[in-house]
Specification:
The protein is of the alpha+beta class. 27% of the residues lie in helices and 30% in strands. It is globular and about 40 Å long.
Amino acid sequence: MNSLQCRLALAAAGAAVVAGASWGVYRTTDVAETMSAGEAVTLYDVRDARQVAGTADDVFAGTVVNHAGQRDIVGILSVLYEVRVERRFKGDLHGTVIVSSEQGAPSLSRGTSYVFATGRVPDQRTHAVLLETSPTSFTSLSAPIRSGAPDGKAAGRTVAEYWSWAVEHEVNVSG
């Protein structure tokens, strides 16, 4: 390969790198138009209750009272449930609240109790289940926890003890 061919090959390689980098910047700055409404990047490990608690506005135990329909919430088609708050671990919710869950997520059963980690929706009347998480069902807050953090911190704890511990030791992953 002569000097001119070498320089042309190097220029072509450089142009390919610049084009690739430009496309990467374009794709990451145009996320709103290329992602569906339900897609998100979660900063927290959904398997770690401390990180989930640190991300949530509210963590509470509640019983599903009724299915309350469907609604578009900030571009995400959501299923709504009326949930009676039984115990607060974090936040100040009380009484019966509306909880939304992204359509396609596992359905919640009327009369079943769950631990919810939710974020407040801007309209302040709805509390959305955190993306990538599922409410955990339980039969009693004093029953042993069935699953927990990957580090084994759930071992030997009841549902109430585990979520109280997770909130007391919450990890704020946002900075």
